[in-house]
Every structure is written in C-alpha cells, then in structure tokens.
Design brief:
alpha/beta, Rossmann fold, Pantoate--beta-alanine Ligase, Chain: A,domain 2, 2 domains, 6-stranded parallel β-sheet, 21% strand
Length: 280
C-alpha cells in the first residue's frame, strides 16, 4: 500500500525515484511503471512537491493544480511503494535557501531565457530530493528536454551517485503531449494546442533533408496554425543545449514553446541526424 511520508527522517533509500509536482496523469504513470520495472523488488518512491523556487513572480504557483489524494491513488496503481509529499517548510527548513545550484549558461537559453531563475530553482530541489531519497536511478520525461539535459549535466558535474533515465513523452491520440497544465485549456484552446505537436511531427518527417529542412517544415506548420503565441521554435544540440549547426549529425531535439490562451506549453521530439553517407 502506498503511503505518505511527512518527515525526511522516515525515508529509506529508493531503488528508483520519480520526481513530480503533482497533478499526476498518464505521463507520470509511464514514469512510475518504468521505475517499477527497473527497480524489481526495490523501493519505488514518488515525490510530490510544488517547488516555489522554480516559479517566477508572474507565473502560476498559486493556481498550479494540487490533487494529492488522486496523485497517491495513481501512483499506487502504477506501482509506487511510497509517496513523499513534503511541504515547503520541510524541503526548505531555513526558508528561502541562500545556497542554490546554478544552471549556468546552459540554463539561460530557451526556457531559461523566458523564465529567468527557473532552472536554478529546479536543479536546487532536484539535488535536495536526490540527497533525501538516495535512489539508484531517477526517472524523468523527455517532454521537458532542457530540464532533462540540465539534470544529467548536474549529476555528471557534481558526481551524484544516481543514474538519470529518460522516458518518452506520452501523447493524446491526436498528438498533444500530456501535461498537468493541459487542464487549464478550454475546448478552443485545446484545439489550438495540437498545433505544437503537428509542427514537431512535420519537422520530424523532413529529417531526410537535414537540419535546414527540419526547421523549415516545422516553421511552416506553425505559421499555418492559429491560436498560438510562439515563444521559440529551435533545433537543438542536446550536448550543451545550443542551436544545432547546419551540418549537425547525431542526436538533436526539435523544441517549441507557445502560449495557448493564458497557458504556456512546451513540447519537443528527439531526432537523430545520420552522418554523411550513412544508411537512412
């Protein structure tokens, strides 16, 4: 039976951990199932914490959905053993932390440019939760591609003894990526939101033409969409989360961010550009 743990002293080392801000959906369930499969008979811990450090002054901290009872039920059904749902006073016992993890230049681009300080706050809480849960592996979704890249870099640079495992994005039948923020969308906004994934799929379909063709196809699809206030569309080299070169080969991420109504959504698809002369 899944249980809530209210004090960090009660936490046992986890074989696998899934970190969330709650409002769990099928995407989170996929993370938990992956953690369960990896952990075998070991402890699978799910954390639920709406981290104030990663919200800017004009963002949706106060209205961010909090559905703890439903979250515990979903976590248990997906295979979690324990849900750790601390409050801010427990995670930050001294108040706002004076010492934080800096995302550096890698966290200042794309999402970081639109949300200054967001990734510093995210990395700080992930570092704390890695210390508290002590997992062998931590599972994160590919939908938050820049977050995933930064966590991987932090774990490498700061020698955390945990493996970071990426789990593919879960989508609705029409392609919309699952997100806790989707519940903010009314019917009209929901119809517009699918324009993000359509643009990404159009870019992915142009992979054989190289980076320029991918960018052009995705941009053309976005230009034909309605109801989207696009922040950025970028083809990214995930190694340093910089813009991919015109002759880029190897892994890449095609990413988009846009406001739909009053809700900001992000999405991406991973790509692999073959080396010249390689079989496609």
């Amino acid at each position: 039976m899944t249980e809530l743990v209210h004090h960090t002293r009660d936490l046992a080392p986890a074989a696998a951990v899934v970190m969330t801000m709650g409002a769990l959906h099928e995407g989170h369930a996929a993370l938990i199932r992956s953690a369960r499969a990896r952990a075998g008979g070991g402890l699978v811990t799910v954390t639920v914490f709406v981290n104030p450090l990663q919200f800017g002054p004009n963002e949706d901290l106060d209205r961010y959905p909090r559905t703890l009872d439903a979250d515990v039920e979903l976590a248990e059904q997906a295979g979690a053993d324990l849900v750790f749902a601390p409050d801010a006073a427990e995670v930050y016992p001294g108040g706002q932390p004076l010492v934080r993890v800096s995302a550096g230049p890698m966290g200042e681009r794309y999402e970081g440019a639109s949300r200054p300080g967001h990734f510093d706050g995210m990395l700080t809480v992930v570092a704390k939760l890695l210390h508290l849960t002590r997992p062998g592996a931590a599972f994160f979704g590919q939908k938050d591609a820049q977050q995933l890249a930064l966590i991987r870099r932090m774990v490498t640079d700061l020698n955390f003894p945990a493996e970071i495992v990426a789990v593919p994005t879960v989508r609705e039948p029409d392609g919309l990526a699952l997100s806790s923020r989707n519940r903010y969308l009314d019917a009209e906004d929901r119809a517009h939101a699918v324009g993000l994934s359509r643009a990404l799929f159009a870019g992915r379909d142009a992979l054989a033409g190289g980076p320029a063709a991918v960018r052009e196809a995705a941009a053309a699809s976005l230009a034909g969409a309605s109801g989207l206030a696009v922040d950025y569309l970028a083809l990214i080299d995930p190694a340093g989360f910089t813009e991919a070169a015109p002759d880029h080969t190897g892994p890449a991420v095609l990413a988009v961010a846009a406001a739909v109504g009053g809700t900001r959504l992000i999405d991406n698809v991973p790509l692999e550009f073959p080396a010249p002369g390689a079989a496609r």
